[in-house]
Amino acid sequence: MSAVAESHRGDFTANPRVLVLAAMAAVIGVISAFVALGLARLISFFTNVFYYGQFSARELASPAGHHLGAWSVLIPVAGGLIIGLMARYGSEKIRGHGIPEALEAILIGRSRMEPKVAVLKPLASALAIGTGGPFGAEGPIIMTGGAFGSLFAQAFHMSSAERKTLLVAGAAGGMAAIFAAPVAAVLLAVELLLFEWKPRSFIPVATAAAIAGTLRVPLMGPGPIFLTRAHAPLAIHGLGAAVVLGLVAGFASGGLTWLVYTSEDLFRRLPIHWMWWPAIGGVAIGIGGLFYPRALGVGYDVIRDLLNGNLVGWFVVGLLVTKAVIWALALGSGNSGGVLAPLLLMGGALGVLGAPLLPGDPGQSAELGMAAMMAGTMGAPFTAIAFVAEVTHDVNLLPGLLIACMAADAVTVLLLKRSILTEKLERRGHHVMREYIVNPLHLLRVGEVMEKDIPTVPASLPVDGLFERLAEEDPVLARRQEWALVDDSEKLVGLVTRGDLVRAFDREDGDGATVLDVGSRQLIVTYDDELLEEATAKMIAHDIGRLPVVDRNDSSRLVGLLGRAGVMSVWLHASREEQLRDSGWLSTSLKTLRKRISTRVHRGAATKKRK
Fold it and tell me: pTM of the entire structure?
């Protein structure tokens, strides 16, 4: 292998530029922490103003403690009306829970977000939650932090991939500060936002999350936000119960996803402008809040009570149903808020109801239910595991969390084509593939798939001479689309294609022209030790369908040809590797045994007939 070819290759493609991005991400982490603080204070301010008539933003009050009676139904309606106006005359992107909008900016918007989104999204979300909306703060902070990260990146000379890294750094930083969960924030970035697993993006995103998580302590207090007592590790029967709870949570996740988008479809059928939908959704929120006030708002206090075993029985059933219905209707109406906190509350309630399956207390099963519901609905199992562990500090349940989350994820992966986060993108015409695989073009070299023993044509051959050889149906030349041109010393000097020959008819100086005159002299070449990904990049950059393969030490010595067919054969082979199954020794033995049994049965039947 050529030393030149290997000198620039390693396990990763990162370069010193990642240090520049990490430094920028550190600044974004600081910004994200203050954005998270501002959002939390805004939520508290609106809650106190609308439900308690006081101008205070210090403590995150719960709407459940109000004494407004039936008049409280009007508060979510008023909030929805204001949000509808903000969306119509400000930016429609403030509608929804934020993560799909961040994904859309990454996938098709070249990671560019508008300044007004950075202002209107936290304002709308804080207003929605402060007026009783059953939402979480993580979706808005992901959208808002991402917007600030994108705006920061747009101030500098950067590629789209680098802007994406800083956008996601802002999103992860905001989530790390809101929940005091920096590790989960980074995993969320990897599982949902980055669409890659590379040091060039992981290092800056982790830097932003760590900085924001550190700044949370002086700004909003230390974590964990749902501190619970440490539970004993689950025994074997407890792990089995965790599987059952995970499966139930998986089906519940599918039901919640269906409920949200069914609600959205119902609102789309209304003969009025979508600006009015959040107000109609506010009616459902207000009515649900009359029966179960604790279903309103972010519900952090309710989650703590579930984890501490303070809520049990039929109250939990009513709370779960009410929260699910008003949350789905509110999201379907286009209101502004996140999904994570509601999923934690509903998952915790589901876990409490399944507590008799587990040997521990209801708080233990609430933890498992929270993680499983988050994993199943969002399709982010590792994020769910790390998140619940960070917000509770109950690391003894990690094996149980792993099992419950994997069970829930297995159900939703097989039951649903898309998660609650990506379904909205699909409805907008964008397909998201969330499976991270190793690109086969990164593994194979040109020499492994190139066409060898390429027939050559003398560069001095007249064009008419080549036409004559093709007309004679020379089996070596007739089937080709291109021909390598060599001089008298068999050195590569050019390439001529069928397209070049067709264009030669229109040339005024075509008479007596040689194939070298009508072909290409300035060749884009590749080497047999070059990775296919590098060779394919050359094809795309120069809009050509074939590359001569030459000796790295002598560019005039032709060793092969790489065409589109060679590249596509790699993907075909990878696809076959996924689908073709080889017979194992056990399956072969069982197949042989089945044949013997079948033969003996048939013989016995034939013997009985003869008798």
Answer: 0.84
